[in-house]
Amino acid sequence: MTAVWLDPGRGWTPVGQTSAVTGRAELTRRAQAHGVAVSYQNWRGRHVEVPDETLAAVLAALGENGAPPARPGPLGRAVAPFPRRRGWGFAVQLYSVRSRASWGHGDLHDLADLAAWSGGDLGADFVLVNPLHAAEPQPPVSPSPYLPMSRRQISPLYLRIEDIPEYQGLGAGDRARVEALAAPLRAASGTAALIDRDAVWTAKRAAAELIRTVPLTARRRADLDAFLARDRRAIGDWATWCAIAEVHGPDWRSWPAALADPGSATVTELKRELADRIAFHEWLQWLTAEQLSAAQQTARRAGMSIGVITDLAVGTHPGGADAWASQDVIVPGISVGSPPDEFNQLGQNWTLPPWHPGWLAAQAGRPLAELIAACTRGSGGLRVDHVMGLARLWWIPAGMSPDQGTYVRYDHELTGGVLAAEAARAGTVAIGEDLGTVEPWLRKYLAERRVLGTSMLWFERRADGTPRRPGGWRRGCLAMVGTHDMPPAVAFLTGEQVTLRAELGLLTRPEAEERAAAQAELAGWLAMLAREGLLPRAGAPSAEEFTAGLYGFLTRTPAVLIGVSLADAAGERRPQNMPGTVDEYPNWRIPLTGADGQPVLLDDMPAHPGVVAVARTVSGGLEPGAVRPDGVG
Fold first, then answer.
1. Maximum Cα interatomic distance, the chain, rounded to a whole number of Å
2. How far is residue 106's CA from residue 591's CA, in Å, rounded to a whole number?
3. Residue 11 bridge partners (DSSP)
4. Which of 117, 76, 87, 131 lies closest to 317, judged by CA?
């Protein structure tokens, strides 16, 4: 019998006929016992049967302890803090937002400056940034912020070297050496060349090594000690992994077998040998945390009610620090991704190993609680990428394509409760990215926990496919035009979003058919914007008018938060990421540029007509005042 998990309160509900094939029937029985879906509804609303090979591989990975055990009693009903007022803010890929002082890569000083300007002059309430998670300790550095080595630590790529207090203690010679490292990278910020993380980190690391020779004052030493004491095990695991990675490479699966266990005698002995390198990486984490906290303080002083909203990626690199230190909860041989959808018609494989639902539940969600606690420090909010993963994740067995995966269930009461409780403890707003295939009950559950959802303009349609009127949108959400996985707004007007996907081989139907559908969708939105008085009814709008009209539309919705893509406002035409590509497209390396392809630096944004126009449109369209958290769904 085939079955699909439809509602957590009703369990698995039969939807098909009893199979005549004994093997399939046995797989179905085991899948039901382990929370594995044997069928699902795809983005076109069609019923899809999961292949036997997929079920067998997933069940083998889960072992005999796949399903979450029964909880001993009801969990607390913690709720996340709700925004005090309707507000808006820029959504940015921080590495792409550069200034004349940054080293070819946006940093935490740039973040503070962006918050001070947008909060103080434009009335913004937050800045939403990409995941700032830690990457490899030495080049080559992976470009994707969504494939980190650790989600619990911050990447020192975002350090502003000159803001490290001990920099002031360098002698003239070392100051000159730091300046020589910085100069070519500052020059690169003034070009549209792709971001070179390897060059940036090589220079910043060398500068950090020089600054570390400056002794800490007694007060600074006490601050460092207090920082390390707060989360000693996690920071120690990270720094140890970094030190070993400098010797054996950044994938623990290729290390000598004796180093595979973080608690082994061999690792303990190696810690003594590498004590100085471990201390170096601990010190870097302290400095980075200080600068993030300073950015948040700047944001609040500028009048922002929330401040910096950080982003939590779905998972980490299978060979990274978190995977090494958390082998008691990581499932090898499986990758997380998503099934095919309208804009990613081949599906997505994020190459991230999932947490084991049974092992996570056996620890009462402690690994998740510690992760969220780490990610909410020094910020005013947390966005959880693919928040549906609290209830189910799309598992793809090794060697299979994304469309050959299936959903595996998690204890959403446990994971959702942990998210709300940790957000409440930190006093941070919680936002779940719930785009794509989402069960309606999950959105209701998260709304009850006051976890905001995410509504994206291109996905907001009525049953007949036409744009949803603003009054039909959710209130308890962050409303946006697009995301980092979507083309910029202007690409929908020009048709470039179809052209690029066709060139990269990402379409599953003829280009003419895809282009006709895109034109029909654009026509629907142009008509909606004209109906709302946001565009003239006659004549084709300019790119600037179209973008401002889309964001003006968001202010007509009841959404409590509105995210403005800084790339959209600047007139950027290239997407930051093209799911389904690796080397075919320069994902995560594109600096912020304008419609003319020239760099848009932070220093020049107050005079940028597009950025200012969109900001004023949104700021002027929001009604000021406090909001109540009731009815957030």
1. 82
2. 9
3. 7
4. 131
Residue type, 237: D
Per-residue CA distances from 67 to 62, 205, 592 (Å): 8, 44, 45
Look-up of token digits 């002082």: 101
Q: Are the beta carbons of 309 and 89 closer than 8 angstroms? A: yes
Please, what is the average pLDDT of the chain? Answer: 92
Q: Phi, psi (5° rounding) for residue 474?
A: -70, 155
Tokens at 12, concatenated = 């698995």
Which pLDDT score, from 0 to 100, does residue 307 have? 98
Percent residues over pLDDT 70 in the chain: 93
- DSSP assignment of 495-557: SHHHHHHHHTT--SS-HHHHHHHHHHHHHHHHHHHHHTTSS-SSSPPPHHHHHHHHHHHHHHS
Helix (H, G, I), strand (E, B) or coil at 42: coil
Q: Are strands 150-154 and 39-41 parallel, antiparallel or unpaired?
A: unpaired
Strand ranges (E), 132-278? 133-134, 150-154
Distance CA 355, CA 359 (A): 8
Q: What is the pLDDT of residues 526-584, one digit of tens each?
A: 999 999 999 998 889 999 999 999 999 999 999 999 999 999 999 999 999 998 898 99
- Look up residue 231 and give its DSSP letter: T
DSSP per position, 66-126: -SPPPPSSPPP---PPPPSB-EEEEEE-GGG---SSS-SS--HHHHHHHHHHHHHHH---E
Q: Rounded distance, CA 308 to CA 482, Å?
A: 19
**In the predicted structure, residue 368 carries a pLDDT above the cut 80:** yes
- Residue environment code for 268-291, b if the CB has 16+ CB neighbours within 10 A, otherwise e: eebbeebeebbebbbbbbbbbbbb
Q: Residues 84, 90, 95, 98: what is their CA dihedral angle, to the nearest 10 degrees?
A: -120
Torsion of CA 49, 52, 55, 60, to 10 degrees: 180
Which class for 46: exposed (0-12), middle (13-18), buried (19 or more C-beta within 10 A)?
Answer: exposed
pLDDT tens-digit map of 229-269: 999 999 999 999 999 999 999 999 999 999 999 999 999 99
Torsion angle, alpha carbons of 321, 391, 402, 382, to 10: -50
Half-sphere exposure for 269 (CA within 13 Å, toward CB): 5
Alpha-carbon torsion, ordered 50, 55, 61, 65, to 10 deg: 110
Place of tokens 């997407």: 575
Structure tokens of 63?
Answer: 């072992």
Q: Are 124 and 89 in contact (CB under 8 A)?
A: yes
Is 465 exposed, middle or buried (CB count within 10 Å of its CB: 0-12, 13-18, 19+)?
Answer: exposed
What backbone torsions phi and psi does residue 151 show, to the nearest 5 degrees? -90, -15
Question: Which residue reads 């005090």 in tokens?
Answer: 84
Tens digits of residue pLDDT in 265-295: 999 999 999 999 999 999 999 999 999 999 9
What's the pLDDT band for 436 if we cut at 50, 70, 90? confident
Q: Which residue in 81, 158, 86 sits closest to 126, CA to CA?
A: 86
- Residue 418 confidence (pLDDT) above 70: yes
435 burial via Cβ count (<10 Å: 0-12, 13-18, 19+): buried
What one-character DSSP code corresponds to residue 188? H
Looking at residue 347, its pLDDT comes to 87
* Token code pair at residue 334: 């499986």
Tell how strand 477-480 and strand 453-456 pair up: parallel
Q: What is the pLDDT of residues 128-161, one digit of tens each?
A: 999 999 999 999 999 999 999 999 999 999 999 9
SS3 of residue 167 by DSSP: helix
562 beta partners: 88, 479
